[in-house]
Amino acid sequence: MSTGLERDRVPVEVTEDDLEAIVGDRALARDDHLNAPGFVVRPDDVRDVLSDLKERAGFDHLSNLTAQQYEDRYESIYHLTKYADRTQEVSIVVPTPIDDPVSESAAPVFSTADWHEREAFDLVGIDYEGHPDPRRILLPETWQGHPLSKDYDQEKPQLVTLTDHANPIQPDHHDAESDTMFLNIGPHHPATHGVLHLETVLDGETVVDVDPDIGYLHRCEEQMCQNGTYRHQIMPYPDRWDYVSAGLLNEWAYARVAEDLADIEVPDYAQVIRTMGAELCRIASHMLALATFALDVYGDFTAIFQYGMRDREVVQDILEDLTGQRLMFNYFRLGGVAWDLPEPRDEFVAKTRDFLDELPAKVDEYHDLLTSNEIFQVRTHDTGIIEPDVAKDYGCTGPVARGSGIDYDLRRDDPYGYYDELEWDVVTEPGCDNYSRVLVRMQEVEESAKIIEQCLDLLEDWPEDEREIQANVPRTLKPDADTEVYRAVEGAKGELGIYIRADGTDKPARFKIRSPCFHNLSALPEMANGEYVPDLIASLGSLDIVLGEVDR
Amino acid sequence: MSSNNPRQQIHGSTAPSTDTRDSRIGEGPDDRFNSKLREAFGSTPFILTKFDKFMNWVRGNSMFMLQFGIACCSIEMMHTYAIKHDLDRFGAGVPRASPRQADVMIVPGTIVSKFGPRMKRVYDQMPEPKFVVGMGSCTISGGPFQEGYNVVKGAEEIIPVDIHVPGCPPRPEALVYGIAKLQERIRNGESSPVVVKPYELEEFGDLPQDELVQKLASEIDEEDLVMRYNWADSP
């Protein structure tokens, strides 16, 4: 790995024998996932096994929970990994019988399991015993059936209610002196960045309780991907998860998992183009995060918001030259990219370099307008605090984790693409507050610019007869039945992972998306409870959620 | 010191005190009327028209948009409002956060079952006359998510739509064109055809007593508003 990317501490390597010793007799069988060793455990051992792995082997990151139904059983798969070393992974597979799908909840061990298990219950229909809040999460409360289970009939009618929400904690707080007030924020509200609904309870101006109610943009992405063939039909969908110009980053998540599944080697030249495109997307995405954050904090639709949009237009122009589309690129292919850099190449390179040259001045401008502004500092400094331990517990990743001083970036920790050949740094800020998260994003823009610069140098010097943009990929991909793989990439908002189980056909049997925004949002109550209402809005803005990715 | 009479001078001011009207008009003919309008209409700055026609003209040229972001298309919608494309040039780009202040609702994205009733409520809250621009394929038919178990097959299932702008997402230029077309229609006094919408908010008690309604009877109050999705009848 290149300079500047070394870690401070060298994590302890846990071998497969160690894992076997820790899980011990509780392992009913072994399961082989392409990415990690898997252990099959009984539904009532889940909590024990997970907490042992967390305490004794350092698996402190519950990256994902996949629930799925087979012909004869339900299965929950807990994908564990470490913040200190992303390459160490282990899967805990929990089968439950088809007529009584009850499994022990992992929520007491990992807070992030709370939302995971609600989603698994909602979409697949597994009950988690001992779950603190067993409600549906994405679909309306009155929904009938579990849409990703095998016997679901999509033609059945459904009822959705439109009712007033009750104050959930009024009885606890109501006495002669104090009373609480229920405040509905969203789902149509300018500060929620889309269609998020926050059920907020206030005591005076202080937030006592906030419950994010999501699912207003649940577009059945997993079902759509399960209906598509590997080769071409799935790739357009990732663009639409995190739709803030982060398309190429998302496409890479699918490309990476599918290439691992089908064992496809991507040519270096294509990897450089991918790396460059992905970082352009990251800049565009962070620019929007900044612009909308200024909109949230200042209510400023005129200056900073427009500055952000101005810079995004430039990036979008470059990306349009490269991919042919402004927002939904559909540019990656399994084994490479759709086409080479646009002709004339010099013009494209010059245009991109112009953008990079102007970027430092623009970043300075943002610093003048935003981060060195006293009002902004008062609004964001020391508000929306999330401590590193809490952030890890909730599975926060991306700028949110790095703003809490967690040195975790998949581009370096689990290298893919061309990142490990390039010189760049992982940005962290120790402040844990809204201000740090903004700083991290602004510095990441500069780091991305460095990466793009180096990619352009490489692309310019690449010999003309070695510009191979695609590997040789079979027309129809049919990975072997029961091959399972979980892979993640560093999306704009954090760790974007995909789990695929193949069943021998040309379509995935289960396609599960691990969305970074989903987890970052689940930590919102930790940041907002006890703070003032405006700080709740600032915290939400600094999380930079995209509802398309939260709800999928 | 207050008085009901208009004051001609400001006490203690060093500015020259002149008669207000004289100072505005100045000497000679009133140059306020030396405008494009004067050029167009000749010497008399008066136009005779029908009040309806005038109102349509005004409506078409001063439209307030609802600040309404749903999904991917809302990013392109923001770009349409922002610099470079600047929808406000066409007299149609002041986003309003409250539906009570808006004339036009751009529906930018996929509508799912949970959001349908909410969108209906927001639409109902807008004052008449109101117009709807459906942005993107999802608001036409459900777009790439049409086969989803949770996706409403187009905005027109719930609210009437005046203009459809196809694309996934449409470019800002396409949205500007769609809005311009809407303005043209409004100026001509055309309104959207009344569409028979399958999905309406109804009181739970009014629904026909079928299996689903009976099953949910214990959970939902008689007077609660519900929307019933008949997926089998959807396209």
Automatic annotation (TrEMBL), chain A:
| Cellular component aspect of the GO annotation | plasma membrane
Class of the enzyme per the UniProt entry, highest EC level: oxidoreductase
One GO term in the molecular function aspect is: NADH dehydrogenase (ubiquinone) activity
Q: Where does the record say this protein resides?
A: Cell membrane
Q: Which SUPFAM superfamilies match?
A: HydB/Nqo4-like, Nqo5-like
Q: Which Gene3D superfamilies match?
A: Cytochrome-c3 Hydrogenase, chain B, NADH:ubiquinone oxidoreductase, 30kDa subunit
In which broad location class does this protein mainly occur, judging by the first location in its UniProt entry? membrane
NADH:ubiquinone oxidoreductase 30kDa subunit domain residues? 40-157
Q: Which domain of life is it from?
A: Archaea
* Family named by the database record: In the C-terminal section; belongs to the complex I 49 kDa subunit family.
Q: What is this protein called?
A: NADH-quinone oxidoreductase subunit D
TrEMBL record, chain B:
User: Ranges of Polar residues compositional bias?
Assistant: 1-18
Which residue intervals are annotated with compositional bias (Basic and acidic residues) in the record?
A: 19-34
List, in alphabetical order, the Gene Ontology terms for molecular function in this entry. 4 iron, 4 sulfur cluster binding; metal ion binding; NADH dehydrogenase (ubiquinone) activity; oxidoreductase activity; quinone binding
Q: Which GO terms describe its biological process?
A: aerobic respiration; electron transport coupled proton transport
GO CC terms on record?
Answer: respiratory chain complex I
Record's keyword terms, sorted? 4Fe-4S, Electron transport, Iron, Iron-sulfur, Metal-binding, NAD, Oxidoreductase, Transport
Tell me its cofactors. [4Fe-4S] cluster
Record flagged with keyword Zinc-finger = no
Q: Does the keyword Transmembrane apply?
A: no
Q: Region (Disordered) spans which residues? A: 1-34
InterPro entries recorded:
NADH_UbQ_OxRdtase-like_20kDa, NADH_UQ_OxRdtase_20Kd_su
Boundaries of each NADH:ubiquinone oxidoreductase-like 20kDa subunit domain copy?
72-182
PANTHER family this protein is in?
NADH DEHYDROGENASE, NADH DEHYDROGENASE [UBIQUINONE] IRON-SULFUR PROTEIN 7, MITOCHONDRIAL
Q: Which family does this protein fall into? A: Belongs to the complex I 20 kDa subunit family.
HAMAP family associated with the record: NDH1_NuoB (MF_01356)
Specify the protein name: NADH-quinone oxidoreductase subunit B
Origin species:
Haloterrigena gelatinilytica
- Output the lineage of the source organism: Archaea, Methanobacteriati, Methanobacteriota, Stenosarchaea group, Halobacteria
